[in-house]
Amino acid sequence: MHVTTETDALGAIADHPWSRQFTVIGYASGGFTLIPHRFFRTWLDEEPGFGTLFIGKCSAFGAGSLVKYDSNDQALRVGRFVAGGLRLQFLLNGQHEFRTISSYMFSILGMGLRNPLQPQYGDSIIKNDVWIGDETMMLGGGVIENGCVIGARSRLSPNFRSEPYGIYAGHPARLVGFRFTERVREALLDLAWWEMPLEWIKENNDLFLVDLTADEGKSLALLAVLKERKIAAPASAVLAPMRSA
Question: Annotated active-site positions, please?
Answer without folding.
Answer: 96
